[in-house]
Amino acid sequence: MAFRQIKSPALADQAVITAKLDTTAVSGQTAATALIGADELLIHDSANGALKKITSANLIGSYTTDDVAEGTTNVFHTDVRVQVSVDNYLVGGTGVTYGSGGISIGQAVAPTDDVQFNNVTVDGTLSTDDITAATVTASGNMIVGGNLTVQGSTTTVDSTTVQIGDNILELNKDATSGTLDAGIKVVRGSDGDKQFIWDETNDRWSTDGETLASDLIGDVVGDVTGTVSSIANHTTDTLTEGSTNLYFTTGRFDTQFAGKDTDGLAEGSTNLYYTDARANTAFDTRLATKTSDNLTEGSTNLYFTTARADAVIAAASVGDLSDVDISGIADGNTIVYDAANSTFTTADHFDSADFAAAIAAISTDDIAEGSVNKYFTANRVRAEVSAGGDLSYDQATGVFSFTERTDSEVEGLARGAVSGSNDITYDPATGVFSVTTYKTSDFNTDFATKTSDDLTEGTTNVYYTDARVASYLTANSYATETYVDSAVQAVIDSAPAALDTLNELAASLNDDANFAGTMTTALAAKLDKAGGTMSGNLAMGGNTISGVATPAAAQDAANKGYVDGEVSTINNTISALTTDDIAEGSTNLYFTTARAESVADTQIGLANIGDLANVDTTGVAADKFLKYDGTNWVVADAAATLLELSDVSDSAYTSKGEYILQVKADESGMELVDPATVVFAQQNRVIINGAGTATYQLGFTGSQSHALVFVGGVIQDPTTHYSITGSSITFTSNIPSGTQAVVINPSVASVPHLEAASVTFEKLAADIKAFVQKTSVSAGTGGAVVDTFDGTTYRTAKYIIAVDSGTGEYETREALVVHDNSNAYITEYAMIFTGSSMLGDASVNMSGTDVQLNYTANSGTATVTVIATYIDV
C-alpha cells in the first residue's frame, strides 16, 4: 500500500487490530492524526481487539450520573440535601419561622385571610383600602384622595383649626322627612352648653330655650310676634294714620318726587353730590386699593391664568414664533438657523437615503487615506506575500510557481519517513506494512512458563486441595484408613486389655449364648424403670427420692416444690383474710367499740384519777392541780406565780412594771428586763429622691449584705451599683433629679438580716416593680406556656427570655407585652443567639383573663427561663 493511498483518511476501523501502537507513532504523524476528527476519541474494542473511533458525545451520551461515582465536593442533587441547604441558609426574622420546606409568619396571609399586626409603619403613601382594625392611628398627616366615609357611631375632631370647603353643611343626611331636630351645639364646659337648632315640631329656628342678645342688631325681615315693649315694635298696619304724618305710598312719593331736582335737595354729609373732581379723586383713591382680584373679568381682555397659557401654548405651533418661518415646509424638512436673516427657516432633512446617495456619488479618491486602514494597491499586496521551498512567488507579476515532484520522488520521501516496530514491520522498498499476530508458538512459549498459580480459579473446575478431598469423601460416606482406624478405636475405646477381644467378651458373659434371655428373665422380677406396682414396702435407707412429679391423685407422692407452693398458697390465703372471714367463738370474742366502751365505762365508773399508777394525789385540796415532776403527776399549788418557777431568776415584781420576760444571755433560765435595753431588728423602707448626687442618708444603720435596692423600679446589685456603710448609701453613678430610689433594709440589731425569700414579690410596695425569675420550662416544636400573669392586675410586662437548646446553643431576647383585655400583643428585640440561627420564637395569647407567654422551638426541645417585670392595670 503506497503512502499516497493512506494520505487521506485510510485507517479503517479494523486496520489496527492490536494495542501495540506507540503513542508517538500515531500522534507524531500528521496523516494519522488527521484521521481523528473534532471531539473524536480512539478507544480499544476489547471484543474485537482493535482501535475504534467514537465521538465524545456518543461516549458520554451513553452514560448518566448513575454511572459516575459521587465526589467529595460536587455531590449529587437530592431533595434532602436541597432541603437541608435551604434550611441552613434561611434565617427567620421576628415572627418568621421555617423548616421542612415551609416558611411561616405565624398567621395565614392568603388574599382572603384577615392579617393582624401590632404596629405598621409605611414610608410613602398608603394606597390600600383593605386595612381593618379596631383603631387606626396616624401620627403624621393623612390625605384621603377619594371620598371619606365614616360609618362609626361617633366622629371626634380634636384639631384646633377646621377648614371645610363645602359652603353648606348637611345635617340629618339620611332623613326622608322632617322628623328630627338638627343644629349646632357650642360646648362651654362648666359654663353650660349653647345650641342653635332647627325645631321640627314648631317649624322654626330655636336657641333651645336660650334668649338672644338683649339688643337685636340689624334689620328684621318678616313678622315680629309676641309681646312688644314699644310702638317701635309695631307696623303702620296697626297704627291709625294721623293728619300730619301721613303714611308713605308710592303714589304720594312719585307726586312729590316728580317736581323735585337735586337743587331742591340739601347736600348731606355722607351722600355728597356728584362732581367730576369728586369722581376722579374718589376713583383714583379707590382704584389704588384694588387689584385685578376686585375687577370682574370681561369678555375680551381676559385675565392671565396658567391653564390659559398652557392651552395657548398647546394650541400653538413652532411657526407661530416671530423668528421662525415655516412657509413652504414639506415632508422630511428640518428647521435650521439662517444667520444672514437672523431667523429660522426650513431645510431638507439629511436622512439615510441622502447619506446613501452621497456615498454613491463619491469614491475612495474623494476620501483622504488614514494612517492605519490604508487603501488597497496591487504593489502593497504583492510586497506582503512571499513563498519558499518548492513554491516560488514573483512580486512583479503576483504569480506563484510550484515545482511538482514525481511519484517516485514522493514515494521515496514518504517511505523514508515511515518505520515499524514490535509486531508491525515496514518495507521502505515497497511501502507495505506487515503485522505479526500472536501465534500458537507464542502461546506455547508463554504457557510453558506458567503454573496453576498464574491461572484464576473458575466456578466449576476448581483446584484440588486436601481439604476439598476430605470434605468430598466425608459427604459421600467413603471410609478412609484414618476413618476406619478411628472407628475401631472408638469401639475399643478405653477397654482394658482383658476385654478388648471378642473371646474375652464372651468369657465375661459366661459363654452364655442366650445371655439376653437369661438377663430378661432376671430383670422381669425387677421394677421397670418406666414404672410399676411395688409388692412390698420401699425402704430408702435415709436416701432421698429426686425428680418426683407434681401429684395428680390424693395418694401420689409430693415433691418439695409442690409442698412449698401449697404452703405459700395457704400463707397468701391467710394473709388475705381478716377476722371478718372467721366465725366468732364462744370464749375469745372479737373486739368491738361498743364492747370496749362498755367495759371502759364500767371500769372508769368504779375508779378515780388516783388509781392511775403514775398519779400521786397525796395532799390534794382546793385550788390544787396536778403537775408532772419528771416521773409522776403530783399535787401542786394552782396559785403559784411566775417568780416561783425555778428557771426564773427574779424573786419580786417591785420596780418591774412594763418589763418583759427574756431568756438570759447564758441560756440558763428567764429574767425580767427593761424593754428599753432590748434592740429588735426593724424592717426599714426608705424612698430617696434623686438630686444629681451619689451619696444619701438612710436614717438608720443598714446592712449591705441584706438590702434590696431599686432605682427607677429596677433592682440594683450590691458593690456593682451601690454600697451601704453605716447609715449612708453611695451609688456608683449619680441619681438624676426626678428619679427615685427605694431601699428595703433591716437596721442592725439582734437579728440584723432578712431571711432568704422573706421579702416576696407580693410583699413589695405597689410602686416597686422587681425583676422576678420564673421556673424553667421545657418547650418543643409544639410550643409551651413559659409564663402567665393576671390580666386584671397587670396591663404590661417586660421579659428577658433565655433559651438553652441542650446541644450547646443558646439564645437571649427581650420582649414587651401588653393586652387590651381581649387580645395580647408582643414585640421582641435585642435578640442574640450563639448558633447558626434562632432557636425558636415567642408569642402571647389571652386565656380567660390571664396573659400567657409561649415559646415554640424550631427543632428538638429547648429549656426556657424568663425574668419578668409587671406593671399594674
Through-space gap between termini: 111 Å
Please state the structural category: alpha+beta
Relative strand content? 15-25%
Number of strands: 35
Helix content: 10-25%
Mean pLDDT: 76
Work out the oligomeric state of the chains in this entry: single chain
> Unreliable stretches, pLDDT < 50, 5 or more residues?
1-29, 749-753
Q: Could you tell me the radius of gyration in angstroms? A: 65 Å
Looking at the structure, what is the overall shape?
flat
Architecture overview:
It is built from 18 helices and 35 strands. The strands form 12 sheets. Strands 27, 28, 30, 31, 32 and 35 form a 6-stranded antiparallel sheet that branches. The protein has a 4-stranded antiparallel sheet with strand order 20-26-22-23, with no helix packed on it. A 3-stranded antiparallel sheet has the order 5-6-7, with no helix packed on it. Mean pLDDT is 76; it is low at 1-29 and 749-753. It starts with a helix and ends with a strand. It has 873 residues and is an alpha+beta fold. The protein is 19% helix and 21% strand. The radius of gyration is 65 Å and the shape is flat.
Question: What order do the helices and strands come in, and which of them pair?
Answer:
Layout: H1 3-6, H2 23-27, H3 30-33, E1 40-45, E2 50-55, H4 56-61, H5 79-89, E3 97-99, E4 102-104, E5 182-186, E6 194-199, E7 204-206, H6 250-258, H7 276-288, H8 306-315, E8 324-325, E9 333-338, E10 343-348, H9 352-360, H10 378-384, E11 391-394, E12 399-402, H11 407-417, E13 424-427, E14 432-435, H12 440-448, H13 466-475, H14 481-492, H15 502-508, H16 515-524, H17 560-576, H18 593-605, E15 615-616, E16 624-628, E17 633-637, E18 660-663, E19 670-673, E20 683-689, E21 695-697, E22 708-711, E23 714-715, E24 722-725, E25 728-731, E26 740-746, E27 772-773, E28 777-779, E29 784-790, E30 794-804, E31 810-819, E32 824-833, E33 840-847, E34 850-857, E35 862-872
Parallel strand pairs: 8-10, 15-17
Antiparallel strand pairs: 1-2, 3-4, 5-6, 6-7, 9-10, 11-12, 13-14, 16-17, 18-19, 20-26, 21-25, 22-23, 22-26, 24-25, 27-35, 28-35, 29-34, 30-31, 30-35, 31-32, 33-34
